[in-house]
Write a structure and sequence with these properties.
The chain has 224 residues and is α+β, with helices and mostly antiparallel strands. It contains five helices and ten strands; from the N terminus they run βααβββββαααββββ. The chain has a four-stranded mixed β-sheet, with helices on one face. The chain has a four-stranded antiparallel β-sheet with strand order 6-9-8-7. Strands 2-3 form a two-stranded antiparallel sheet. A hairpin with a 2-residue loop joins β4 and β5. The two termini are 30 Å apart. Bound molecules: coenzyme A. Coenzyme A binds next to β4, α3 and α5.
């Protein structure tokens, strides 16, 4: 499968129609194990969104899309290994990147009261610390979330998730980001700044891919 763009689909999980019938039996059983109704409904909406979008590319009914996990835990298409995707959700916002190359995406709600010092102390490199030093409180919180999403997008693209410490990658130095796996891999990462209350980032192997945005009418996402 060859795609001309990296496609970014996004939706508001809390405004989605009930998609339970689009899930496999196993996913429905997983949904039933959530104690919180909100978490359960968002899980169902997230999976229905993923299956509906992938079904368009694969020309399959959402429920019959075959999703497997790679050894690092990253979900992948069993129907067509040339179709790559990655999903992220924060609160009601979900974003799904679809491409013909490895891709990683992350979205986070910017939480003003977040304890950013504990995050930066554990996971930021000296260069990343330098980038946020001197910013006033509001700008600092936004910058911290932008760096977090860049780190997560790269680690998710590389399929390692948080099995590899985010402290080991620097996502603001110029040039590609090196992930110290064996062998090492290099990634391009870009911030998406979708909305004043959201931070998001996309990681791909090649430089500057062309992006195509596919909003749902209710999504809290604007391209800036
Ligand atoms: C994969 C990981 C990075 C998920 O991050 P997250 O921000 O919690 O969640 P996201 O919504 O962005 O991503 C979850 C989705 O990523 C995908 N995913 C799961 N494992 C993955 C992996 N190893 N690689 C890439 N993608 C993965 C799945 O589609 C998953 O959706 P699902 O739960 O519906 O199956 C996870 O390994 C993790 O440990 N997160 C910790 C986050 C954290 O503490 N951040 C601190 C700030 S630096």
């Amino acid at each position: 499968m060859t795609l001309p763009t990296v496609d970014l689909w996004h939706t508001d999980l809390d405004a989605s129609p009930d998609g339970r019938s689009l899930l496999t039996d196993q996913e429905q059983q997983r949904a039933d194990r959530f104690r919180s109704t909100l978490d359960r409904d968002r899980f169902v909406a997230r999976r229905a969104f993923l299956r509906s979008v992938l079904g368009r590319y694969l020309d399959r009914a959402p429920r019959s899309v075959m999703i497997e996990q790679t050894s690092g835990g990253k979900p992948a298409s069993r129907d067509d290994p040339r179709l790559h995707f990655n999903l992220s959700a924060s609160g009601p916002t979900a974003v799904l990147a679809v491409a013909d190359e490895e891709v990683g995406v992350d979205v986070e709600m910017i939480r003003d009261g977040a304890d950013v010092d504990s995050i930066t102390g554990r996971w930021f490199t000296p260069g990343e610390h330098a980038a946020i030093d001197g910013l006033d409180d509001g700008d600092r919180v936004t910058a911290v979330f932008e760096i977090i999403t860049r780190k997560e997008a790269v680690l998710k693209a590389a399929s390692v998730g948080f099995a590899l410490s985010p402290a080991l990658i620097d996502v603001i130095a110029p040039g590609p980001v090196v992930v110290p796996t064996v062998p090492p891999t290099t990634w391009r990462v870009q911030s998406l700044s979708p909305h004043p209350t959201l931070a998001a980032a996309l990681a791909t192997r090649e430089g500057s891919p062309k992006l195509a945005f596919h909003p749902s009418p209710n999504a809290r996402w604007e391209r800036r």
